[in-house]
Amino acid sequence: MSNGVGIARAYPNMALVKYWGKRDEAMMLPAAGSISMTFDTYATTTRVELDPTAQSDTVELNGQVAGGDAAARVVAFLDIVREMAGSQSRAHTVTVNEAPTAAGLASSASGFSALAVAASRAYGLDLDQAALSRLARRGSGSAARSVVDGMAIWHAGDTDVESFAEPIDAPDMRLVIVTVNAAQKAVSSREAMRRTAATSPFYGEWVTCTEETLERMVAACASGGVDEIGRIAETHALRMHAVIQSCDPPIRYLSPRSHEIFDAVAALRDAGTTAWATADAGPNVAVLTTPAEADAVAGALADLGTVRVVGPGHGARAIDEETARAAFDAARSGT
Description:
One of its GO terms (molecular function) is ATP binding. This is diphosphomevalonate decarboxylase. Its EC number is 4.1.1.33. By secondary structure, the chain is of the alpha+beta class. The chain folds into two domains: 5-170 and 318-333, Ribosomal Protein S5, domain 2; 174-310, Alpha-Beta Plaits (2-Layer Sandwich), CATH 3.30.70. It has helices spanning 68-85, 107-122, 129-139, 143-146, 189-199, 203-223, 226-245, 256-270, 294-301, 321-333, and strands spanning 5-10, 13-17, 22-24, 29-30, 34-38, 44-51, 58-61, 64-65, 90-97, 151-154, 165-167, 174-179, 276-278, 285-289, 306-310, 317-318. The strands form four sheets. A six-stranded mixed sheet has the order 8-7-9-6-1-16, sandwiched between helices. Strands 2-5-10-11 form a four-stranded antiparallel sheet. Strands 13-14-12-15 form a four-stranded antiparallel sheet. Helix 2 crosses helix 3 and helix 6 runs antiparallel to helix 7. The longest helix is centred in the middle third of the chain and has 21 residues, at 203-223. The protein is globular.
């Protein structure tokens, strides 16, 4: 915290037990808990600088002035921070995403966790990890988990205080990200969650299933069985996409290429490789495997999309101006 400026870096996460549905949209309380791995790549870097003379907030995203819903969500989040800090000062926010925005690779998770750290520092708040997780959750539910290093469990809770993420022990694992389409998806996760909860005849059972799955995943992480973790994750991902497809009108995030990757992963598994597929709300697929097998899995899937091996990474944290400058300069120059 210094001179009304805060700078932070955060990374996306991939849920192995999915978050899909809210019990309280205003407070962003999930219908059930979830578990995820924070990445060590695809960073979001965010700088917030207060300007007491400004009449409104400004938002820059990836080198361009942001407007519409993207800017409105940042301003709404800053309003929450201002209320916490007892401040009326407006702010200039600059953000760079290395991951594709709104393509099913959790850019909102890294975005709002980085914003939570940067804005809290700029406005002079001294928040511990649990408080930062609660704050990040107000911007995007999955951002609650990107505050945490490595594997995180997000407790659903019944109140704001009870709903936060914290670390959970798990074996060392890798995810092979297979990007098949980096374009922004037609239906946002937020809208799709609303539609699923309002129109799917299976939504209630989905919530119950998620609560039961979370218990099994906690046990699997504690026992250290990567295959059991993968089996649970793949099953739960397919169930999530099934309930999304059951809403009215239906939403289909997985593409034919996505299904092809799931099939290729099953073939790898049949041949003796540790490989289990999962996908968030988008067409891109993540394949859970061991560190020793990650490069081989990536090689086997290279013809199906752009592949990158990611491991468990740091949660959101403050960084200095010099560290951030390269990311901002690259975005503004288009490189």
